[in-house]
Amino acid sequence: MDAKKGVYIATKKDGSSYYRASITYKNKHISLGSFFSDKEAASAYKVAQKIVISPSKTEYRQYRSSCPLSFEKWIILHNFRDNGYYMKTPIYMHRYYFSYFLSSSQELEFDAEDLFFYSTHKIFKRNGYLFVNHYGTQMNILNRYGIKNFAVAGRDYIIKDGNPNNLRYHNIEIVNPYHGVERILHNNDFIYRAAIHIHGNYLIGKYKNPVYAAISYNKAADYLKKHKICSKEFPRNFIEELSTEEYKSIYLKLKLPTKLLELKP
User: Fold this and answer.
1) Mind giving me the DSSP string for 96-150?
2) Which of 31-45, 67-81, 124-138 has the weakest average pLDDT?
3) Does the pLDDT at position 2 exceed 60?
4) Mean pLDDT across the chain, nearest whole number?
5) What is the mean pLDDT of residues 171-175?
6) Displacement of CA 120 from its chain's centroid (Å)
7) 109: which strand partners?
8) In Å, how far from its chain's centre is CA 92?
9) Torsion, CA 15, CA 17, CA 18, CA 19, rounded to 10
């Protein structure tokens, strides 16, 4: 290691060399990343040193693409310096909330109560959805609000201020928490339409109560599975507010449409 520059030389499995930079701050040894040359590694170290030694000269929103230090490390170091907490994810803490930076151009906002979760779970984006790896599976972060996978913004949930990056709890209103159910406006009032997808959407029914629509969807899914009409494993709705007897009573009363009952395996 070159102690002056904070640079280490390292060796890949194929025997070729590369360089790593790191810095120690507040008794914390922090890796700054890997680099092709010692010059790049030294430049990253100098930027990191400037951040922690000269607080008045850098600010977390001042990142430039020409910076030799990665944006993620830039945010992590500024948060550690300004707020006293080292985190391995690109979080910057505010008084009542925190920012999680997916990139220099996309800043997500979360409530402070979610800080521990996102300080230990890295967010990644795929096909427009935001995920974390959680207990060995990929979890859509909207699930934390009770929003189902493949829910549609504006139909199943509403972002009140119109900013999809503002993921604070007060800014999200869940319109429909159930699989296979859609709230629609009919004669100046809301009704709930239940449908199930089998080579196209099959209408199950329209209901004044979203719970009835959710249970009718469950019943349709159970029927398709029992009669081996569809191999797809449909998710079921769990109705927390109903007892087992109440659920069973509604389930037995609901009728499935003839069109669905006539389907063949």
Assistant:
1) SEEEEEEETTEEEEEEGGGHHHHHSS--EEETTEEEEEETTEEEEGGGGGTPPTT
2) 124-138
3) no
4) 93
5) 94
6) 13
7) 99, 166
8) 17
9) 130
3-state secondary structure of 159: strand
Q: String of b and e for 43-72 (b: at least 16 CB within 10 Å)?
A: bbbbbbeebbeeeeebebeebeeebbbebb
Q: What is the DSSP letter of 7?
A: E
The rounded distance, in Å, linking the Cα atoms of 139 and 123 is 10
pTM for this entry? 0.80
223 exposure class (CB count in 10 Å sphere: 0-12, 13-18, 19+):
middle
Contacts 24+ apart (CB under 8 A), 107-110: 107/165, 108/165, 108/167, 109/165, 109/166, 109/167, 109/168, 110/167, 110/168
The secondary structure of residue 153, as a DSSP letter, is B
User: pLDDT tens for residues 228-262?
Assistant: 998 889 999 999 899 999 999 999 999 999 999 99
Cα distances (Å, whole numbers) of residue 155 to 61, 147, 150, 152, 182? 34, 11, 11, 5, 7
Structure tokens at 40: 């790049």
* Range 100-107, long-range pairs (CB < 8 A, 24+ positions): 101/71, 101/72, 101/75, 102/130, 103/71, 104/63, 104/65, 104/71, 106/165, 107/165
Cβ proximity of 217 and 256 under 8 Å: no
Give the Cα separation of 153 and 42 in Å (integer): 46
Q: What would the pLDDT profile of 35-50 be if each residue is shown by its tens digit?
A: 999 999 999 999 999 9
Cα distance between residue 201 and residue 196, in whole Å: 5
Provide the residue type at 265 as one letter.
Answer: P
